[in-house]
Amino acid sequence: MNTITKRLFPSISKFLLKYHVNNRTFSSVKNVSNNNKEIIVLGHRNPDTDAITAAIVYSDFLRQMNINAKAYRLGDLNNETKFILKTIDIKEPEMLPDNIPNGTEIALVDHNESQQSMKNLNKMRVTHVIDHHKLGDLTTSDPIYIRIEPVGCTATILTKLYCENNLNIDQKMAFLLISAILSDTLHFRSPTTTNDDRKILEYLIPLAKIDDITSHAKQMFEAKSDLQGFSSQQILLLDYKTYSFNNETWGIGTGETCNIKKMLERKDELLKEMHEEKKRNNLKGILFSMIDIIKEKNLTLIPDDIEEKVVRQAFKVDIKNHIADLGSRVSRKKQIIPALEEYFHRQS
């Protein structure tokens, strides 16, 4: 049994030891695939670093489990993710084709809501879900392998899966896993960070052979902050998800940066693009949070009266010049969406 499993999760060590045979833990990961055809591994639309790296890493994990799998993507890569893949010399996943046959086996990583996933997901056969978000609307006709944990990053869960199954994590996979944890937790600045994330990162450092984690995180965040040549639509959709509140759809985007002044210079064009996005997709509302990674500060753009009303009441803040200062609320998952859900629940 892997030493990290014993050290981090002693409560399950005896159970795993009991079922440990031929240097491999029995795993139900293999029980849900009905054929030898390729399983498609997907992160969410408008993918961030965790979504892309999780797809690459989980497909590697499945192949080590003798399951045919391939990573795909549902959107363009941001500059941070491009920097990471270029540094470790890994090709970006192919864009998912439009003509995926009905019934194709799909593994979802870093999401479990249909509106954040591929089109026609309901016509596919979802076999695996590895995620760290709240349960969404996903339903399946057959039992599936599902692993959702309240941690800061999907990469933390994936590392546990390798360890529990006594599988090798090579340097490139370790590099991707570390980079995803740093990205999703804002190098442990985010309130989503857990002790598991910290311990897993510590375990991965010698495997990834990264000499200076702080320097690597800084380079990642600087790459993410470089928006030169990006259109306002590209910036808005860099890390953008849709949510249903009282059966009405809202778009919530975030832009993480080391230079919030540069992003603020594009406020007017971003507000215009937010209006266009609302019309294009018949949204009830739309918000875009500019997150200062270093100062841990959130300035959220408010395009219309309806968003202003909701944000005033949900967060108890004032709005000036279409900007709401949401203070240190830097996590959409843990600080923004729950507050909005609570507000809309009161209105229902």
TrEMBL record:
GO terms for cellular component: cytoplasm. InterPro entries: DDH_dom, DHH_sf, DHHA2, DHHA2_dom_sf. It comes from the Eukaryota. Pfam families: DHH, DHHA2. SUPFAM superfamilies: DHH phosphoesterases (SSF64182). GO terms for molecular function: inorganic diphosphate phosphatase activity; metal ion binding. Residues 217-344 form the DHHA2 domain. Its EC number is 3.6.1.1. It catalyses: diphosphate + H2O = 2 phosphate + H(+). It is an enzyme of class 3 (hydrolase). Its cofactor is Mn(2+). Keywords: Hydrolase, Manganese, Metal-binding. SMART domains: DHHA2. Belongs to the PPase class C family. Prune subfamily. This is inorganic diphosphatase.
